[in-house]
Write a structure and sequence with these properties.
By secondary structure, the protein is an alpha/beta fold. It has seven helices and six strands. It has a single domain (7-226), classed as Rossmann fold.
């Protein structure tokens, strides 16, 4: 599938992907957006709201946020305010073992315990069958071959990745050109926001994801296999 080169064509493709695979699935499917509060997943959520509004669907968008307990306060405040402003059904999920501290020295185990396990449990609990993500191919080499529509298992659901062909500049052009809200941390120079222990300050990195934990990014393909986005 080709999205075209212009931002407008990429966004139109994304809306069509969501309409054809999520909206058309009907009431037998539960659709959720994996929303971190970052720029990419916020754009994906904005697109899904547009699709619902254009179809005059009487449904509040369901947004799932996995909170590891060490997120930036600015991200928490942003997502709380936007969830209210946008009228979202917002489910924030936490680890089943909240007293177990994060361990940035072992990102595979840490993300598995604090992100993957609670996400899977919530997908089962809410019977989500379609999950919309904001991942992009250019973020990381392991995402270069990801597909727009992916079947996932344990639990069984379909993941839609409408932003795959967008790049970082596309995302910002969409936000700024369409007045889509974003977390104010980006105005301080951050380009990618994760957990506080695994996100370097803006002065310490150049690339979009080089501010993120290199140990985690080196294992991103393994994390995806475990159930990460």
């Amino acid at each position: 599938m080709s999205t075209g080169d212009s931002l407008d064509s990429k966004l139109e493709f994304a809306r069509a992907l969501l309409a054809d695979n999520a909206l058309a699935a009907g009431s037998t499917h539960r659709v959720a957006v994996a929303w971190t509060g970052g720029k990419d997943s916020t754009l994906a959520l904005w697109l899904w709201r547009q699709v619902l509004a254009q179809a005059e669907a009487n449904a509040r968008p369901l947004a799932l946020t996995v909170d590891t307990g060490v997120k930036f306060p600015e991200i928490i405040a942003f997502r709380t305010e936007l969830a209210k402003d946008w009228g979202l059904e917002h489910r924030v999920v936490y680890s089943a073992d909240p007293d177990s501290p994060p361990d940035s020295s072992n990102p595979l185990a840490c993300c598995g315990r604090l992100k993957v396990a609670p996400l899977k449990a919530t997908l089962r609990e809410l019977k989500v069958t379609i999950l919309i993500s904001g991942i992009r191919r250019d973020e990381h080499p392991s995402r270069a071959d990801r597909q727009f529509v992916e079947k996932r298992s344990d639990p069984d659901y379909v993941q839609l990745n409408p932003l795959l062909d967008l790049n970082e500049m596309d995302v910002w052009a969409a936000h700024l050109g369409r007045a889509i809200p974003y977390c104010p941390l980006y105005n301080q120079g951050y380009r990618s926001l994760g957990c506080v222990p695994c996100t370097a300050s803006p002065s310490e990195h150049l690339g979009e994801r080089t501010g993120r934990s290199t140990a985690k990014d080196a294992r991103l393909e393994q994390l995806t296999a475990l159930g990460y986005f």
